[in-house]
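Human: I would love a firmer grasp of how sequence relates to backbone shape in proteins. Could you go through the record with me and say what the backbone is doing? Here is the record:
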Amino acid sequence: MVATIRNPILPGFNPDPSICRVGDDYYIATSTFEWYPGVQIHHSRDLVNWRLVRRPLERASQLDMRGNPDSCGVWAPCLSYSGGLFWLVYTDVKRFDGNFKDAHNYIVTAEAVEATWSDPVYVNSSGFDPSLFHDDDGRKWFLNMQWNHRTESFGGAPKTPAFDGILLQEWDERTRRLVGPVKNIFAGSSLGLVEGPHLFKRNGWYYLTVAEGGTGYDHAVTMARSRSIDGPYEMHPNTHLISSKDHPEAALQRAGHGQYVETPDGQAYHTHLCGRPLAPQRRCTLGRETALQKCVWREDGWLYLENGGTVPDVTVPAPASTSVVAQPSVVETDFDEADLPAEFQWLRTPAAERIFSLTWRAGHFRLFARESIGSWFEQALVARRQEHHSFRAETVVEFAPETYQQVAGLTHYYNRHKFHALGVTWHEKLGRAVTILSCPGDFPHGRLAFPAGSGAAVPDGPIHLAMEVRDNDLQFFWRAAEHDTWQAIGPVLDAGVISDEGGRGEHGSFTGAFAGMFAFDTSGSALPADFDHFRYQAPV
């Protein structure tokens, strides 16, 4: 079959795509924010079929996000290859609200993407979204946006002056530090909020692409060029290479923040993030996803989308004939292996052994109930991305709570202000029970709602839990044994609030929806919860 590229190529929460080609192999690195391990790297040989192959930031010396607020952590990695090494540049953001960001930038390297990556080298903290450009004369240049804390930029409603241009400085590989003068090379366009810089060189020109307009519906990829790496840079004739900001009818919205790549035979493509909103409230329940556009070089020396405009396409030509590998409609595990399945991540902590084990009890995934759901420090919540607008997730939990402070079960989770959870707990009148804990976007307080009241009494033994999400609607279910009928519990809940736009709004959070298992024990006893199955099915 002759294939086309169908967007998004990386569905679900996969923002800020940095693409790198080495020979016939393509790699895309995306942001992971507070989810651990840090940075997702997918691999492809045809730009059509992609497979997750590595999350390289996997130990405390590389990344420790305990205490990082929601939507902080790893922002906008940049993946490159030079001198026989892969180079990964990333930010660990320690603060979100208020005038400051406290964004620390690092470099790690590896001889192969699948290998163990080095300990990080600290670079600077002047702003976020760093990248590393390897010039053809052997010099290396570090770029990042500069954050100006002196403006009224705070609380998820940024003002343009806080995004104070793109900084450039040489990075010395021998001393592993920045050297020489630092220069602000690009202030961006009138759209503002300039960030996410990437440089590449072609026919003697330095081309700079940046993200602008914020991460919401005004997002864009802006392009400029210069004969000198430190400028001055002239703007693209259209200013923006990619944007849906003036086209609310486009299927791919929030288009921006990406990077250029060429195939071995010189065909041009450009990644970008995007969102697919659901009616009627235009909430992107799958977060910011990764897409890829076919581009062309025109006689004026500028890059354009092949479709002739700036609005990205859902389908674009693939570089060569290839077969599309069908994705399974059901992904399930019985936790019989010693390693956590690749699709799962957890939150913030490098000390995974404190929150889960696959060896404590054969054939079971044990969560050690820790701090409350939504904690920024040690939360026992392990989950996978929601990749479809409609899906069903199921699990089976064995849990013997002795107090209402002990809860374990199944959750549809975004952050501490946006989640729904069905848990097994204890109630003074019901005894062992299942109930719903929900925080439907209550910012900043994070107050809980209990849509099922005290819940329903359940017998001893394993409890089967399920949730069905159909676009903006979520329904929880439970049953006690294999021969029992599934019972709905609680009303239909707002699944659409589990999105960037839910609650605080599109510039207040930047991750995506997850489906997974959780356990908390605010008594401090670390009561274990054993899960012996997890199933994700889409669509439903």
In short: The chain has two domains: 19-246, 330-537. Residues 19-246 form a domain with the Tachylectin-2; Chain A fold (CATH 2.115.10.20). The radius of gyration is 23 Å. DSSP finds no helices and 39 strands in the chain.
